[in-house]
Write a structure and sequence with these properties.
about 30% helix; 8-stranded mixed β-sheet; alpha/beta; two-stranded antiparallel sheet; Spore Coat Polysaccharide Biosynthesis Protein SpsA, Chain A; about 200 residues
């Protein structure tokens, strides 16, 4: 089984408000990302909560997702990845790590990672747009104990560097894999433009 792990624990300090709950089209940023996961070929979806966890959980109450709590969310993204891997069910063979501030990534990007993993069997699958690596990233659960032992100050880069021979890249057609939302300018650039 392959699960989506949505990293939704951050404080959104640079945005000045909780970015996961900002409007995105007819919905919110976090709902758009959850819908992408649910529309994709993953077998389950786990949302890692931290800052504003009750508000985010409430926004997702009607969606069929599981939740994990990252009590160390102030230590950065790796702490959420670790909380996600700790909370995955035993039968999960891999996780697609989806950032909580990339609502424009289409579900076919997720499907592309999943199908490449299934046909290739490499442990780490990374999307590439214009020769640049982006997110989401698929990582096999065989790396779980190593991920749990990583230094939060350095992050997941340690794992990627240590296992470069296990990586396969997937060319994608969506530039959204390179764009996240850290500040109001990023958000303005990413929100869907209403049709006139």
């Amino acid at each position: 089984m392959i699960w989506a792990v949505i990293l939704a624990a951050g404080e959104s300090l640079r945005m000045g408000t909780q970015k996961l709950l900002l409007p995105y089209g007819e919905t919110t940023v976090i709902e758009a990302i959850v819908r992408t996961a649910l529309d994709s070929s993953v077998d389950g979806t786990l949302v890692v909560l931290g800052a504003d966890k009750e508000k985010v959980r409430k926004a997702l109450k009607s969606y069929p997702v599981n939740f994990a709590i990252n009590r160390d969310f102030r230590r950065g993204m790796l702490s959420s990845i670790q909380a996600g891997f700790e909370s995955l069910p035993g039968e999960a063979g891999a996780a697609v790590l989806m950032l909580g501030d990339q609502p424009a990534v289409p579900f076919d990007v997720v499907d592309g990672l999943v199908s490449k993993y299934r046909e290739n069997g490499r442990g780490i699958v990374i999307p590439v747009y214009g020769q640049r690596r982006g997110h989401p990233i698929l990582i096999e659960t065989g790396y779980r104990s190593e991920i749990l032992g990583l230094d939060p100050e350095v992050g997941l880069k340690q794992l990627i560097r240590a296992h470069s021979q296990d990586i396969i890249e997937v060319e994608v057609s969506s530039p959204a894999v390179l764009k996240d939302m850290d500040n109001p300018e990023d958000y303005a650039a990413i929100i869907p433009k209403k049709l006139h």
